[in-house]
Known about the structure:
This protein is mainly α. Helices cover 93% and strands 0% of the residues. It has four helices and no strands. It has helices at residues 2-25, 29-37, 40-127, 132-155. α3 (40-127) packs antiparallel against α4 (132-155). The longest helix has 88 residues, at 40-127. It starts with a helix and ends with a helix.
Amino acid sequence: MKKIILTITAFILVFSSYFLVVRYLLPEWVESGQFGDMFGGLNAFFSGLAFLGIVYTIFLQREELGLQRKELELTRAELKRTAEAQEKSEKALSKQAASLKITAKLNGLSAILQHYNTLIELTNSAKYGINTAEFNARKKDADEVIEQVKRLIENK
Length: 156
């Protein structure tokens, strides 16, 4: 923004200076007109340069648009690869979840088997003089554990 303000200020100063210098050095309008006509060729030259600048800008813009098209194609290809990788990752996660589900069921079955082994040991111990109340309390705790494991397995 500072550059724009400085450019406008410089343009106004140069234009004003030019006007004042020409007006005071050449007070006659005829002489002033001849002096201005002297720069007509230079005016046409700068107009031609401006036109060439516009043509050059159009060519640069055309090249830039071509580069943008290529970049868009590359971006689309990259997005396609990303989507495919994400789908593969999703499939792998689904397989992992299924494996974890099977593992949880196996752990639950293992706990049930361990409980039944404990009950068999307690039953055998009860035959050999263990307190019946203690046996029933342990059996009740083990039955609760089994029910919890069964609910977990059934809920998937």
